[in-house]
């Protein structure tokens, strides 16, 4: 019954994420992949900070463009593709839990629902954040399968190396995960030291990552010299939205943000830990952590769901709850140093902490939002709880006495109230995720908006069929009308604004170094046209919402491009309700 309800709610949430809303981050992901699908080249034509994140989505868009010959309905198509990948990854998680982990089918289904109801940015399109989550989860499952008995399948190790490079396409700083996984290989390899020596495990993992990296560099070298590559990369670092402050100031800001999180974090951890220890002393058969964790899931899920439903909080509220669960997961590993827990620690929980730090090195997001990268620690910790409470019952070899009677051994039985506590905690935590995915909407600026907001269906273009907030839909539909009427195939378009889905509206060539939604229109753009004079725009579309809509980033450096436009002879040719067009 519970699984049936979860299935229905998860299906509704999936449908909602396919058909409801569109924000600037998803527009950016689609624009990058579209550029790659239409033949533009990495680093040479694209000077985007997250351009490698378009590699996975680009083949899907290329196929759609070949078959459909249009970008109409492209948003829905990409979301359907992302949904299918997400579900398939969840099925692999479920099968691994049941068949390899020997976790009960109901709890394995719970792990599946914890997975499918989570999205790092609450965007179902295969954007770079979601890809990173898929890859870190698949690495955990590959290592688990290998060390849990499928050791003859060295391909799991090589595949993990390939997936690590895939993570680095989202954030190159995730190369710091390599020593973490290597340490895990060494630590988990000791389990088998007396049975069989396996000196090649690290080599298989390293070979998978190294070969993938070499092939990628060879591809770049096929059309670009090392000197050009380094020069283009230096231009990418002119992106002021990611480098506005110095590294020292940036980490000082992160430190202050973490201190704001620390008090509620310590309160929740303190309450759940104290309650867990009290229950453990009363029962005297389990460590306190096995009660503290379900209680923490209960508290964190309840507080987050209440904040989102009744406190006008958005989908990124209390993402630090993933940090809290991961911290308790470490306590569980220390309390019971089993082979199972060791694998979950080194291939699930530890990568979550290292991913957080690695992402903060490069991101312009705050600490709480970045903690979405720690969700792999939640999966690994829930996995350990499942192994403790919900292992599938198997008929063991029963020792028989000389009289022919069965010997009795000490079995740690799970009482009804313990199972109720476990499931209450997990289900309430899952309810918080469901509120984010099913009830709330991801919009530009991350406002506190639910599906009850007035919406309007997009009637044309890549977002056709998508229901958006009424005001945003009106603006985009009018802009679509203007650009499709004014632009020709031979035009080269530069759009100055945040809704970069506009580049998919017409057949005009894309004439911009970057399509991210937080562009600083500075010297990088001028450098781009000096390096690629053939891409100098014939039309510049200036979004009037830039500087007026608080959801859009308006860089103080934008005046640099405006001055260049005047010097280059661009003149206003059309003043539409929400957009101005310039030609020269």
The proportion of residues forming helix, as a percent range, comes to 55-70%
**SSE run:** HHHHHHHHHHHHHHHHHHEEHEEHEHEE
> Mean of the pLDDT scores?
92
- The gyration radius over C-alpha positions equals 26 Å
What does this protein structure show overall?
- Helices cover 59% and strands 5% of the residues.
- The N and C termini lie far apart (66 Å).
- β6 (571-575) and β7 (579-583) form a beta hairpin.
- The protein has 21 helices and seven strands.
- With 584 residues, the protein is mostly helical.
Summary keywords:
two-stranded antiparallel sheet, 5% strand, mainly alpha, 584 residues, five-stranded mixed sheet
Please render the helix and strand layout as text.
Layout: H1 2-19, H2 24-37, H3 57-68, H4 74-100, H5 105-116, H6 128-147, H7 155-170, H8 177-189, H9 201-221, H10 226-236, H11 240-243, H12 247-283, H13 289-310, H14 321-335, H15 339-362, H16 367-370, H17 375-389, H18 416-439, E1 455-457, E2 467-469, H19 470-486, E3 492-496, E4 509-510, H20 523-531, E5 539-543, H21 559-567, E6 571-575, E7 579-583
Parallel strand pairs: 3-4, 3-5
Antiparallel strand pairs: 1-2, 5-7, 6-7
Helix pairs in contact: 1-4, 1-5, 1-18, 2-3, 3-4, 4-5, 4-6, 5-17, 6-7, 6-15, 6-17, 7-9, 8-15, 12-13, 13-14, 13-18, 14-15, 14-17, 15-17
Task: Write a short abstract of this structure.
This protein has 584 residues and is mainly alpha-helical.
């Amino acid at each position: 019954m519970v699984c049936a309800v979860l299935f229905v709610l998860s299906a509704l949430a999936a449908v909602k994420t396919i058909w409801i809303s569109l924000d600037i981050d998803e527009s950016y992901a689609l624009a990058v992949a579209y550029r790659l699908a239409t033949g533009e080249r990495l680093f040479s034509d694209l000077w985007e900070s997250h351009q490698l994140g378009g590699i996975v989505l680009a083949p899907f868009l290329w196929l759609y463009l070949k078959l459909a010959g249009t970008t109409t309905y492209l948003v829905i198509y990409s979301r359907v593709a992302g949904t299918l990948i997400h579900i398939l990854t969840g099925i692999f998680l479920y099968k691994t839990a049941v068949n390899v982990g020997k976790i009960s089918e109901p709890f394995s289904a719970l792990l599946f629902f914890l997975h499918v109801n989570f999205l790092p940015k609450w965007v179902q399109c295969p954007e770079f954040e979601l890809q990173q989550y898929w890859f870190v989860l698949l690495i955990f499952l590959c290592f688990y399968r290998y060390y849990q008995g499928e050791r003859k399948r060295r391909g799991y190790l090589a595949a993990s190396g390939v997936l690590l490079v895939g993570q680095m396409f989202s954030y190159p700083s995730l190369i710091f995960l390599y020593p973490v996984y290597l340490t895990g290989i060494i630590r988990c390899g000791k389990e088998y030291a007396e049975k069989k020596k396996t000196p090649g495990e690290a080599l298989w993992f390293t070979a998978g990552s190294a070969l993938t990296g070499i092939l990628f560099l060879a591809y770049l070298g096929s059309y670009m010299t090392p000197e050009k590559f380094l020069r283009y990369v230096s231009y990418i670092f002119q992106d002021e939205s990611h480098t506005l402050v110095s590294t020292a100031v940036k980490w000082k800001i992160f430190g202050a943000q973490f201190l704001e999180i620390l008090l509620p974090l310590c309160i929740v951890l303190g309450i759940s830990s104290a309650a867990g220890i009290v229950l453990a002393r009363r029962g005297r058969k389990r460590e306190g952590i096995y009660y503290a964790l379900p209680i923490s899931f209960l508290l964190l899920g309840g507080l987050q769901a209440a904040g989102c439903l009744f406190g006008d909080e958005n989908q990124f509220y209390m993402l630090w709850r993933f940090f809290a669960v991961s911290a308790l997961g470490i306590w569980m590993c220390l309390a019971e140093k089993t082979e199972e827990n060791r694998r979950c620690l080194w291939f699930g929980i530890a990568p979550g902490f290292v991913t957080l730090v690695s992402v903060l090195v490069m991101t312009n997001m705050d600490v709480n939002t970045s903690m979405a990268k720690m969700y792999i620690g939640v999966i690994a910790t829930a996995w350990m709880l499942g192994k403790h409470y919900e292992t599938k019952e198997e008929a063991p070899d029963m020792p028989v006495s000389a009289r022919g009677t069965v010997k009795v051994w000490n079995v740690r039985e799970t009482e009804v109230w313990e199972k109720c506590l476990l499931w209450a905690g997990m289900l309430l935590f899952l309810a918080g995720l469901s509120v984010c995915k099913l009830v709330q909407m991801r919009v530009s600026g991350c406002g506190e908006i639910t599906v009850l907001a007035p919406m309007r269906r997009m009637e044309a273009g890549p977002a056709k069929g998508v229901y958006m907030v009424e005001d945003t839909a009106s603006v985009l539909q009018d802009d679509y009308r203007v650009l499709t009427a004014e632009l020709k195939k031979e035009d080269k378009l530069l759009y100055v604004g945040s809704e970069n889905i506009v580049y998919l509206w017409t057949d005009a060539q894309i004439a911009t170094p970057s399509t991210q939604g937080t562009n600083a229109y500075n010297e990088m753009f001028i450098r781009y046209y000096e390096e690629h004079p053939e891409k100098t725009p014939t039309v510049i579309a200036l979004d009037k919402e830039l500087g007026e809509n608080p959801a859009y980033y308006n860089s103080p450096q934008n005046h640099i491009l405006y001055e260049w436009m005047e010097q280059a002879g661009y003149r206003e040719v059309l003043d539409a309700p929400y957009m101005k067009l310039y030609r020269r």
